[in-house]
């Protein structure tokens, strides 16, 4: 591989590793050297799937459940399990289980737990059980089923006296797929993966900040020919943390292919299929911009095309996702001003940073052009959400339950230069949130410019 081609590959990697909104939606393949893909293909032909370890899987599932149950019943100073008393609305009689097994509003509600627990804790639980199943030689579908069964037993038995949580059911094992599959593939094939770490400085809405970030990506698609593949042949994870004396925000995610068709032709390669993604954003309050919360698990069609012409490489791609999200209602403060005595859903009432549950749709088109040592590119992440109303844990207490809608738009453009294993990139980002809550409207936006230096391995 020539130095020029090597630099192009490296520069493309930092361009697509820009950690703007929907960071994990960047195509994983641009971090991967073609020679390494060929080696991975050759090595994969020698691998033989192991036997499913049913006994070990059962023991690990029981251990995970036992540790989680011990945490649930921990004594925080007011008695065993006292921190969960407020949720014991079904009681400990036998009808609590029968109501949940009835799968109706008598047994299942949206809970009002903290955003951190619902947006991080449950996804990590799902990822752990999914990853454990994959390590015990179960395939993607079987691992998802095992994760779902463990999560379901938590809802039915560990949280016996609670309503079954609709949001946990929608986000635990489902989120476990992109996170758990990416973790499994990267840990199994860590020598073939490509990694990038970066540090940078920038300005957002007049505030200066520093930032650190990291990314890993793996592409084990066959290096020649065409065909169908199943599982995480293309995975990536990414995280970025800006700070300004304290943590300013946390943003990151994971993405994994599920199934797809690949083809290599003269001067191009194509992947078209379906993928799953997890995305997380926690933006802290600052004087010049408002706080924000957004977490979502998504799945849908994806396409990546790479074209080669001499010293030029053009990467094109797009994702289209159906989402389940937990996010801030942009119009909540405006609505609250005229409805101060209203009792709203539990995830918003009396919360310092209220959020709601929503279904959504996301489209992420992207482009990156690399010529020798220089690259330019851009992407959009367009999301539309509307609230899932009713079936709240405290539904009988609610006096106002207005429908909520939000749109999240993130645009990013970058230009960079590569020298050996180091790249220098300048990018500009625009993020806008707008929404309604009943008749109230709200909007917030932020403009960011950033200079980053990254090292690739």
Q: Compute the gyration radius: what is it?
A: 23 Å
Strand content: 35-45%
Helix content: 25-40%
Instruction: Give the CATH superfamily.
Output: monomeric porin ompg
Q: Any idea of the CATH class? A: Mainly Beta
Rounded average pLDDT: 89
Uncertain runs with pLDDT below 50, 5 residues or more? 1-48
Give me the CATH architecture, please.
Answer: Beta Barrel
H/E element order: HHHHEHHEHHEEEEEEEEHEEEEE
At CATH level 3, the topology is: Porin
Largest sheet descriptor: 12 strands, antiparallel, barrel
Strands, total number: 15
Number of domains: 1
Helix/strand-derived category reads alpha+beta
Shape: globular
> Strands of the biggest beta sheet: in what spatial order?
3-4-6-7-8-9-10-11-12-13-14-15
Distance between the termini: 16 Å
Separate helix tally: 9
Annotation keywords:
457 residues; alpha+beta; Porin; 12-stranded antiparallel barrel; two-stranded parallel sheet; 26% helix; globular
Report on the structure:
The protein is α+β, with helices and mostly antiparallel strands and 457 residues long. It is 26% helix and 41% strand. The strands form 2 sheets. The chain has a 12-stranded antiparallel β-barrel. Strands 1-2 form a two-stranded parallel sheet. A hairpin with a 2-residue loop joins strand 9 and strand 10. Helix 5 packs across helix 6, helix 5 crosses helix 8 and helix 6 packs across helix 8. The protein is globular and about 70 Å long. The two termini are 16 Å apart. The N terminus is likely disordered.
